[in-house]
Amino acid sequence: MPCWHGTRRCDRPSGRGVRRVKRFRTFRLRRLLAETAGFTLIEIMVVIIILGLLATLVIPNITGYTEKAKVEKARADIASLEGALELFRADNGFYPTTEQGLDALVVKPSTGRIPTKWMEGGYFRKGVPLDPWGNKYVYFAPGRRGESFEIMSLGADGQESDDDVSSSDHLDSGRALAR
């Protein structure tokens, strides 16, 4: 039934007809969604197989980067410890002994050669960190290769082997460059 808006005739259907059409469309849409909802077992299995294949490709790469990151963290820690040892030597004129160890950077040594100008509060305020694998850093004074000291992380296996990270590693690369 036509309606009048102002002085113009309008061919829009009345409000009741529009509501009926909307209800019918909504019902059809709901029924269509109900019929197509969910996945078949085959579709789910295909997705699981694809995810498994992706995991086998990605996980080995991630673990390799994790190990490299741990080695770099150990190198950064060793560099920080070297800096603290240099401050210790600048204040006291000597490095801590092997027996005093890296703890001499946190607590004033009471045995061996006792520092006279030990910095109040220590040289490493939060304590000596553990290496990224949860082991203590190993300290030698003098170092095993003739340097003043050596700081070493025993790596993932916790024993001296090829995976160790040492403050004297740069000496090897320097010798290789000099050749």
Q: What is the CATH architecture descriptor of the domain at 70-178?
A: 2-Layer Sandwich
Largest sheet: 3 strands, antiparallel
Morphology call: elongated
Q: Assign the CATH class of the domain at 70-178.
A: Alpha Beta
**Which structural class do the helices and strands define?**
mainly alpha
The percent range for strand residues is 5-15%
What's the N-to-C terminus distance?
A: 101 Å
Task: Provide the gyration radius in Å.
Answer: 36 Å
Task: Tell me the total number of β-strands.
Answer: 5
Low-confidence stretches: 173-179
Helix content: 40-55%
CATH superfamily (homologous) name of the domain at 70-178: Glycoprotein, Type 4 Pilin
Major β-sheet strand ordering: 3-4-5
Q: Please give the count of helices.
A: 3
Average pLDDT confidence is 79
What's the SSE pattern? EEHHEEEH
Summarize it.
With 179 residues, the chain is mostly helical. It has helices spanning 15-36, 41-92, 169-178, and strands spanning 3-5, 8-10, 138-140, 150-153, 165-166.
Secondary structure layout plus pairing:
Layout: E1 3-5, E2 8-10, H1 15-36, H2 41-92, E3 138-140, E4 150-153, E5 165-166, H3 169-178
Written account of the structure:
- It is a single chain.
- By secondary structure, this protein is mostly helical.
- 47% of the residues lie in helices and 8% in strands.
- The chain is built from three helices and five strands; from the N terminus they run ββααβββα.
- It is elongated and about 95 Å long.
